[in-house]
Amino acid sequence: PMNGGNVITSCNNQLVVRLAKLSDPKFRRSEGLFLCEGEKLTRDALGCGACPRYLLVLESELEKFSELCVKARRMGAEVLFLSPSPFGKISTEKSPQGIIAVLDSFGFCKPFAEGTDERIFMCDGVRDPGNLGTIIRTAAATGFDTVVISVCADVLSPKTVRASMGGIFRINVRISADMAETVRLLRSEGRRVFAAALGENSKCLGRFELRADDVFLVGNEGHGLSDELISSCTESVLIEMVGDTDSLNVSCASTILMWEMSKVFNGISVRSVTDHG
Question: In this predicted model, what pLDDT tens digit does every residue of 248-262 receive, in sequence order?
Fold first, then answer.
């Protein structure tokens, strides 16, 4: 190996056993570490200034990832080379790519703070890590600064990190201990918060003018938003659909909402549609 160190070959190695436990959320929190797997996500993490504690490289892939090894070491990471068995014990991927960054979780998922003029999207009760990661990925791609979450899937789980495709390194993810209180706080600052919910008085997306500081709130995959949360919002909004389809996957609905907001961010006015009945 390039640093003259030994290749770790035992699955019983103390560090291997410890890092393999990072698939457990409680252990991730207690250790303050999380896994970032694969070449693209590792490049994103190191490029965005995430703090690497370890860089784990499959011994057969050393030449391929030599540049990332140098970069990680410069950033203070301990670079380790592993044989297939211990590498596979740590990896959560079905087909590991031969590189894993073990990152410090400090700085990720801080509590939401008031008085921000950030572009915000909010999620309450989104429990599927794939959905949450996709929402974070889309938020990063459409110009949002922050995704505020409450009672959602673990942001730093391998599945969420993978689904975010590096989005968690490019935008803020903030935790709300009480989403209804967060909604009230945003409204007290003069912002409109729209609940994505079907109701008698729900506005149709695209039929009213959006403002750059508007905030959308989406809810749980099966149950949507609670009545309390909906009533705490400024108004409800729905996405018009054709045929017999009566709902969208939460990440799909979020993408449509964020796309409409991205037009406002980019100065494209989303004006109300007049009724010529």
Answer: 899 999 999 999 999
